[in-house]
Amino acid sequence: MDALPPLSFFAPLVVMTVALSALARPGRRPGGLPRLAASAAAFGVLLAAGGVVQLLLGGPVTLSVGDGPGLLALRLDAVSATMALLVTFIGWVVVRYSGRYLDGETREGAFHGQMLATLGAVLVLVQAGSLLVLILAFVAVGVGLRHLLLFYADRPEARRAAAKFTLVWGAGDVLLLLACGLLWVAFGTSDLVAITAAAPAGLSVTAQVAVAILVVVAALKTAAFPLHGWLTEVMEAPTPVSALLHAGIINAGGFLMIRLAGLVQESAGAMAALVMLGGLTAVFGATVMLTQSAVKTALAWSTVAQMGFMLLQCGLGLWALALLHIVAHSMYKAHAFLSSGSAVRAVASIRRPGPVAVPGPGAVARAFALALILYAGVASGFSLVVGPKSPQAVALGAILVFGVAYLVAQGLADAAPRALTLRTAVASLGATLAYFGFHVAASALWGGHLPQTPVAGALEWALIVVAVLSFGLVAVAQALFPLWAHHPAASGLRVHLANGLYLNAVFDRLTGGFRRTANH
Questions:
Q1: pTM given for the model
Q2: Contact status, residue 81 vs residue 52, Cβ threshold 8 Å
Q3: Contact 380, 418 (CB under 8 A)
Q4: pLDDT tens per residue across span 383-411
Q5: Which of the 8 DSSP states describes residue 285?
Q6: Residue 452: C-alpha distances to residues 214, 271, 314 (Å)
């Protein structure tokens, strides 16, 4: 008797079926449809959890139909099982929230149908086992999200954001199709497992070109610099759409890199490009985020920075940490968007504390020195217990510890009360321990299913040094910002940064965004 197919493979079918029912009733208050949609999403969580259990009991499974370029395959392994469980859980939360948020809207039924259909497409994407399924799923996700972004189609800003998203996402789909065609030529198979298994034997010129194109696809799908503008302009869509986008769909580019990690890692140029592009996007997004006054806009720029950091992790070969980053960022960002309204009220009700302790150059220097000493001590302790870490992992930890240094600097300011100093010290130790603890956990969960971090050569060391210095300089500038914030040059720089250095306006002009808006 044949074994039962992985239960997680049925999750897209369940949510798609209910999506069709919702689309058949697109109007206001379509009976018990919101509860049915939430129930379908909840059942999807159970199916995804069942897939995890089957994976633990029976190991990875691939179900396929057809052969050659037309191969249709779904894959259950550690990566797809994790992503399916994450997507269904986030989807369930968002769909439940949508039932209350959209209650009484003119096209409430249509929204639930489009939300579930998009969720189903994402579930197919994260479980894709062949090139054709990967392409079709990416296209379906783009179509679904475009409809959600245009839920309020009468708003010019919504139309402009949807048009820009369609251009960027569609360009990614075209390039993905080209890359998949080259992979078929290079390897003679469209099975993703077979491709990644054959890659370590060496990449032909055709395969190298395909990998380079895949990096560009990942950059487009994650809204990397400089084509990030559409992601920061989707606030005209309902809040559940922002939550699903920022907590799930935007991770697609990173997932593509992780899914094909064995292939991507064989190209030193591709890995270097991911480090440089990801690092630049992370620094740029984080810097602009600090200048934003609107909660949702700041969250959008935070997503830009986080996606850049995830690409940086992929470029360093820290695949397990990149997957952990997707999981953690998805959970945090879904909560942040769905609770953004209450967050505004909570901040407004907080009693202002009065003068803030501003650290001087001496305090900042001491903070960075103490943070690095703390990091070195914790790293040495973990190395003795669980073994030495790769230079890439140590460098990533150093980048993260710069945030700890900024925290320590607040506690070391001359005017800082003793309680603040103690609290920042405890928080800094906790953050440092958490990094290495999560690293160990991620390696235990996914390390055996993803490629090992490559040995650092001259190119890798050069990129590591550049990345660490870049993030270090930004952290120092941020810590010293109160000292030079009132300078006229700083005020001008803040205005430029608040507008994202006007890169989005340039993209609008190049694509005719302003004219499209004016013509409606």
A1: 0.90
A2: yes
A3: no
A4: 777 777 888 888 888 888 887 777 777 66
A5: H
A6: 20, 14, 12
